[in-house]
Amino acid sequence: MVAVGTLALLAAPTLRAQGALPVPVPVRVTGVVRDAATARAIADAEVLVITGDTLRLRSDARGTWSARVPATGELRVVARRLGYAPATRRWSTDAAARATLVLSLDAVPQSLDQTVVTAARRPQRLADAVTTIEVVTRAEIERTGAADLANVLLEQTGIQLQGGHPSGAGVMLQGLSSERVLVLLDGQPVTGRIGGTLDLARIPTAMVERVEVVKGPQSTLYGTDAMGGVINIITRTPARGTSALTLGTTLGSQDRRDGTLSLALGRGAYGSQLDVQRRHVFMTPGRASGDGALSDRTDGALKLRWRPDSSRSLEANVLALDERQRWRTGTFFGFADNRQLNARVSGAWVRGRHRVAPTVSLSDFENVARTSTLALPIAGDTGRRQHQRTAQAELLYDARLGARGTHVLTLGTQLRRDAIEGERVTGGARSLLLVEPFTQLEWAPTSRLAVVPGARLSHSAQWGSRLTPRLAARWRASERLTLRASAGEGFRVPDFKELYMFFTNTNAGYAVIGDSALRPESSRNASLGAEWTWAAGFVRAQLFHNRYRGFIETRPVTQPGEAPVFRYANVDDGMTQGVDMETGLLVGGWRVDAGYGALRTRDRTTGLPLLGRPAHSGRVALARTLPFGVRTSVTTVATGRTPMERDSTGRVSSWRDAFVRIDARLARRFTTGMELVVGADNLLNALPAAWAGFTGRHVYTALSWNVGQSTPR
To answer: Which band of pLDDT confidence, cut at 50, 70 and 90, is reported for residue 94?
Structure first.
């Protein structure tokens, strides 16, 4: 909520001393600094009030500032804030004394000074990261109008949704499938994969502050599942000295009915953030048809933080989710009840050049699947149950070395236990224990060059030990141009399905069994990136090449004429390579974001491209504030024609149609704290074939009310 201060004119008649020139009496001027796109107050902005002298001020938590200036001549005000382009306005002191001075700042497409944590497992400036990292900010999340993370990532360059039902919507990076992309919540792994896919439609956007995406192998820092990259979901934390209550509701087609409640409290060293959301829609993740489909989700996220000073902090957060799904297949209805719980406690202690950060986390997921000929489950049917759990403890230590502390040594160790229970698992229950020490050194011989070698040693009683090295470098060729390069390895431990599954489909007449002798998958990656930045924009490109070996797939183990039986094995070798290009800039009041991705893949055995990977994809997003404070955004996402199936000769027998999706949104914030949003996804109602997910037009309207109160910092 933007609280606009009032201005009082404190001028009196000009005083004259006998024989002296007139002495003007100072007047008080008051102003407010706002975000041009959202009209929200910008706290802690630097404000320069320039008359004959220059006054340096800071906006408070309401975005307001106040100063006393001489009542003569012209007044110039400059406002600056990290992540925004500076703004300058001029007034006469007489006019300034009679009205509130409003300065609206445009958010820059990329703020190199913003803090990120994923690339190095510690807080650092985005400009200092040695690997290319993409950040989806809270403002960008709100512009999508999406209630879940899957639909947010759909609009990003180089990220392809992948999956089906009942596995849901996963993501693919650099042509590597969703089971090879690690999803983190505040830096800790999230369990709950079905068929290898973690359904990101389960993750609500209400609790998300930003999403950090690092493409390419990150196994050196994060271990298994990070061969294709890492998606780190950072949850919201309230600022100091603020309290706010936000209530919101969204109504839309497909019977969409969402409700949200957010409560933020920040007092001194303490802060808490509570987000509760209820989501209902006649759609199911991974299914194109809405016939008989239903998704009901209730989730709550709580984050507590204690930070008395810059040297100590303690943080705890929990996410609890309850989901009910229904879908129709022929004459049968399928049902899935999903329960998700994620909890984390972490701390950080800094003394001089040393930093210690311990963390413990738990991710728990339960799935119950049932079928019925009716639209309700059969009474007394307990269904087929699967229970997954990941518990992890880690300790990180950073030390700044050298005379100026420009080199950073990171030492860490992780202890991770994965467990599963289910009737399709041989023996009913299995567990896997991983012990993984790792290290990396950021060596910065000059202010422009940083070289980062690193390695991780992973050990398990099931498959032994594995060393995963990586070498990365960053060179600032100039103030605007930064080059990044990396070469490293990735790995993925076989999951429980691949190791221990025993599944028989009597209706279809086939069986799938696991193999406890499977080896971890491996890959090698090389990437080269360049980034050109200026005050109002950036251009970025990244070339990548992945060579993978021993990917796990099923292969037949029965003879022709026998009932087919498939067994998992390390059988696939091949490569993926391509380029991701992005740009963001401010042009004539418009914010423009655009990207293009090209991908080439090949299976070494057949020499054919991999299925399910589009060769081309791109997006263009435009946003602007129109008259009367109406904010508009239009996003176009294009995905090329994609091969999906082959016949016995190796020729592609089934294609997924190309898809051009246009999303549009209008929003208006009022001084009462109310905000009204009207939007449409897939505005032209394009209906491509063979898409694993709903592609029809979706229209919605949202209304939110923010009650905020701020106190001085």
So the answer is: confident
Phi and psi for 659 in degrees, rounded to 5? -135, 120
User: Confidence class of residue 273 from pLDDT cuts 50, 70 and 90?
Assistant: very high
> Does residue 713 carry a pLDDT above 80?
no
Residue reference for tokens 């209400």: 206
Helical spans, DSSP H, in 85-232 = 93-96, 138-144, 149-153, 219-222
Average pLDDT for residues 110-115, to the nearest whole number? 79
Per-residue b or e along 180-207, where b marks 16 or more CB atoms closer than 10 Å to that residue's CB: bbbbbbbbbbbbbbbbbbbbbbbbbbbb
CATH code of the domain occupying 27-105: 2.60.40.1120
**CATH 2.40.170.20 domain residues, the chain:** 223-710
Measured distance CA(51)–CA(71) in Å, rounded: 10
If one compares 36 and 396, the residue with the highest pLDDT of the two is: 396
* CA dihedral of residues 367, 368, 369, 371 (deg, nearest 10): -160
**Average pLDDT over all residues of the chain:** 88
- 314: which residues sit within 8 A by CB, 6+ positions away? 305, 306, 307, 345, 346, 347
Please state, in angstroms and rounded to a whole number, the distance separating the CA atoms of residues 323 and 338. 5
Give me the residues paired with residue 349 across strands: 312, 356
Reduce the DSSP state of residue 311 to 3 states and report it. coil
In this structure, how many other beta carbons lie within 10 angstroms of the beta carbon of residue 126?
A: 17
> CA–CA separation, 292 vs 371, rounded Å?
13
Domain 223-710 falls in which CATH fold?
Maltoporin; Chain A (2.40.170)
Give residue 507's pLDDT band: very low, low, confident or very high (50, 70, 90): low
Q: Which amino acid is at 367?
A: N
Backbone angles phi, psi at 222, to 5 degrees: -125, -5
Residue 17: CB atoms within 10 Å: 8
Task: State percent of the chain over pLDDT 90.
Answer: 53
The CATH 2.60.40.1120 portion of the chain extends over 27-105
pLDDT at 502: 82
- For 324-370, write each residue's pLDDT tens digit: 999 998 889 999 999 999 999 999 999 999 999 999 999 999 999 99
**Per DSSP, which regions of 604-646 are E strands?**
616-625, 630-639, 642-646
Residues 6+ apart with CB under 8 A from 660: 636, 637, 638, 684, 686
Is-contact 125 114, C-beta < 8 A?
yes
Question: What digits encode the pLDDT tens for the residues 584-618?
Answer: 998 888 899 999 999 999 998 888 899 889 999 99
Residues 6 or more apart from 607 whose CB is under 8 A from it?
Answer: none
* Burial degree of 23 (CB within 10 A; 0-12, 13-18, 19+): exposed
